[in-house]
Amino acid sequence: MVEKSVxxxxxxxxxxxxxxxxxxxxxxxxxxxxxQTGTAEEYAIRIAKEAKSKFGLASLVxxxxxxxxxxxxxLPEGCAAIFVVATYGEGEPTDNAVQIVQxxxxxxxxxxxxxxxxxxxxxxxxxxxxKTYEHYNAIARIVDRELEKAGATRIGERGExxxxxxxxxxxxxxxxxxxxxxxxxxxxxxxxxxDTADFVVSELDSHPEEKVYLGSSSPFVP
Length: 222
Ligand SMILES: Cc1cc2nc3c(=O)[nH]c(=O)nc-3n(C[C@H](O)[C@H](O)[C@H](O)COP(=O)(O)O)c2cc1C
Fold this sequence. Notes:
Elements: E1 6-9, H1 17-25, E2 29-34, H2 39-55, E3 59-62, E4 80-88, E5 92-93, H3 98-105, E6 122-129, H4 138-149, E7 153-154, E8 159-162, H5 167-186, E9 220-221
Parallel strand pairs: 1-3, 2-3, 2-4, 4-6, 6-7, 6-8
Antiparallel strand pairs: 1-9, 4-5
Bound molecules: flavin mononucleotide (FMN).
Flavin mononucleotide binds at residues 35-40, 86-89, 91, 94, 128-130, 133, 135-138, 163.
């Protein structure tokens, strides 16, 4: 049995859409981070670890630049997307979130169903910003607004952290209410199996050649 851990997918671009979808079907959460200097990424990983320890849920922590965003409308029932996004400049996204923000705000952008709709998608937003800037947490607000406009349903309240004074306190104050709402929205209960491993490794005597994926392996969050 492989030690339980949260896989961080950095090679989704090289997966076929089919492989990507099958990957998601085994995960309950996909967590996108929009991060320039690593803080949002750290919070994304924390959220993934909390989902695992509280509910036994596996997450895919994902650099949005490396995700085929048009498949966002294909997240299966019972899954949720979490956006942990920082704001920079004059209320701009981080480099790795430019494309997803553009896709979300461009109403001509089509998801895999051929429309700009995300009905059925459940999502969470936590923004990282700094109140000394004029456009405080602008990207988290834009992402939230656009997801809602596309028909997706927010779980709980949007969280906003202020790097000037209280990022950690803001996160801690926000997360309990979010996890309560999350449990209701996904129909999960706290204490459900933090001991459940994400993977079981078993040895096969033989296997069909075409079932072996020889692409790059995904790194693991320690
Ligand atoms: C050059 C610079 C510009 C920033 N611009 C904004 C801004 O316009 N609005 C905001 O709310 N926060 C702004 N911030 C604060 C960052 O969003 C915050 O520090 C965040 O935690 C960075 O996350 P990251 O480490 O994941 O990149 C800015 C920070 C820097 C260094």
